[in-house]
Design goal:
This protein is an alpha+beta fold. The two termini are about 45 Å apart. Helices cover about 35% and strands about 20% of the residues. The strands form three sheets. Strands 1, 2, 3, 4, 5, 6, 14, 15 and 16 form a nine-stranded mixed beta sheet that branches. Strands 7, 9, 10, 12 and 13 form a five-stranded antiparallel beta sheet that branches. The protein has twelve helices and 16 strands. Helix 2 crosses helix 4. The structure holds glyoxylic acid (GLV) and manganese (II) ion (MN) (2 copies). The site of one manganese (II) ion (MN) has 6 residues, from loops. Glyoxylic acid binds next to loops.
Length: about 425
């Protein structure tokens, strides 16, 4: 009897404590996701917003205006990142920073990057509504061009080199041109870099982009580590000639060699033990006519793993096989590394623990897990204690218009973000 009464009081007490906790507004968060999806909306109902496009620039302006409306001190840094600052009670403390990205892959979805970005706005709304002044200054960062090589976060981490400016994305703009389009300045990029430990902590909320949380019915993922990824451009040079008059044994068919190479990338990546992944996601054949043997082909090559050594090992094996294929096909092959590299990153254990505690206090189930997707957080981890919060992706689908995360899951993640910020504010100097 006493035990029963005690448990009732315990449950009532706990629910009162939870009820007092500031919470995000699920509808407002979801509406902002819908609002953001209007930038780049196409006639088919899907949104296109690759970095540097007009839609990306327009969305950037909308976020800036929204942040100003929330009373933040906002500017675009020289790398095109949106930086919004909210003062804290103790001006001698370093900021707690958080954010994500609003650019998208071609034919992408409404949630990748957008959830973390709109949840960060929602957190600021809730702090304002509850008149909470944190000890630390807070800083929201909406990173530029995450999808094309974590550009904005690499600039902040101090390793966006000049070679990166030459990399062109599907808009046709190079990173250098894109930075200028977004209000940055390539000649002053070094000024964007923060010193190590200038930021007290960095947090990013993101959709999982895989199917583990949904499958295991878990509400919050706590990222333990993020894969590194490397990109190359692979060029095959053969000889463009008449498709009707050139005998089969006298051809230098660049596309045929590229086709064999694509199969080899898959086989070689699979041939090693481990969770490494290798992908050819892009191909361009010239001159591109049914009656001309392709003389030149450029493909992409991407390799990811939690270890840079494994990426290197898989690459060397692919390169050797590629050269063998080229020789056997009587074409030339060239591997050109693109300056879009993101190194593998371990998330700070104490921040992981803080995320876990905040989630548990909110009554949410958690799981520590790796991230197979790249994120701005992996570059921020080079200069600040960093943590990432994942929420479930329906069907594990991402980088697709079919990407979906429910409003409830987004709100759960935003609440964990909010309460982790508040907990870190209490604990950190
Ligand atoms: C970023 O979304 C990546 O993992 O490619
Ligand atoms: Mn992405
Ligand atoms: Mn993303």
């Amino acid at each position: 009897m006493y035990l029963r009464l005690f448990s009732i009081f315990l449950v009532l007490g706990l629910s009162t404590i939870l009820a007092q906790k500031p919470k995000v507004k699920q509808d407002r968060l979801e509406n902002r996701i819908f609002e953001l999806a209007k930038f780049g909306l196409q006639e088919n109902g899907e949104t296109e917003r690759v970095a540097f496009s007009d839609a990306d620039a327009a969305a950037q302006k909308w976020v800036v205006q929204t942040l100003k409306g929330l009373g933040l001190d906002v500017h675009i840094d020289f790398a095109g990142n949106i930086i919004g600052k909210r003062g804290g009670g103790n001006t001698s403390l370093k900021p707690i920073s958080f954010g994500s990205h609003i650019d998208r892959v071609p034919n992408g979805g409404n949630y990748d990057g957008c959830v973390g970005s709109m949840a960060s706005l929602e957190v600021l709304e809730v702090l304002n509504e509850n008149q909470i002044v944190t000890k630390h200054p807070l800083e929201i960062i909406i990173f530029s061009n995450e999808e094309g090589g974590v550009m904005g976060s690499r600039a902040i981490a101090g390793h966006l080199g000049k070679d990166a400016f030459k990399v062109v994305n599907s808009t046709g703009y190079s990173m250098g041109e894109g930075i200028m389009r977004l209000g940055g300045d390539t000649t002053r990029i070094a000024e964007v870099a923060r010193k190590k430990d200038e930021i007290a902590a960095f947090l990013e909320l993101h959709i999982e982009q895989g199917g583990t949380l949904e499958k295991e019915n878990i509400q919050i993922g706590i990222v333990a580590g993020i894969v590194g990824l490397k990109w190359w451009e692979v060029e095959f040079t053969g000889f463009a000639n008449h498709a009707g008059t050139t005998p089969m044994n006298a051809r230098q068919d660049a596309l045929l060699a590229a086709a064999k190479f694509i199969v080899a990338v898959n086989e070689i990546t699979n041939s090693f033990e481990g969770a490494q992944v290798g992908t050819v996601g892009k191909i361009q054949a010239e001159p591109g006519a049914p009656n001309v043997i392709p003389g030149k082909v450029i493909t992409s090559l991407e390799i990811r793993d939690l270890s840079s050594k494994v990426i290197e090992k898989v690459y060397e094996a692919i390169k050797t096989k590629g050269e063998e294929i080229a020789k056997g096909s009587n074409v030339q092959i060239e591997f050109r590394p693109l300056d879009t590299t993101a190194d593998p990153a371990i998330m700070t254990t104490s921040i992981q623990d803080e995320i876990a505690t905040s989630a548990e206090l909110l009554g949410l189930s958690t799981k520590r897990m790796p991230s197979g997707a790249g994120h701005d957080a992996q570059d921020m981890a080079l200069i600040a204690p960093t943590g990432m919060i994942f929420v479930p992706s329906k069907g594990g689908i991402s980088h697709s218009p079919k990407e979906f995360t429910s409003a409830e899951d987004m709100a759960n993640g935003a609440n964990v973000l909010l309460h982790t910020i508040l907990a870190l504010d209490k604990k950190l100097d």
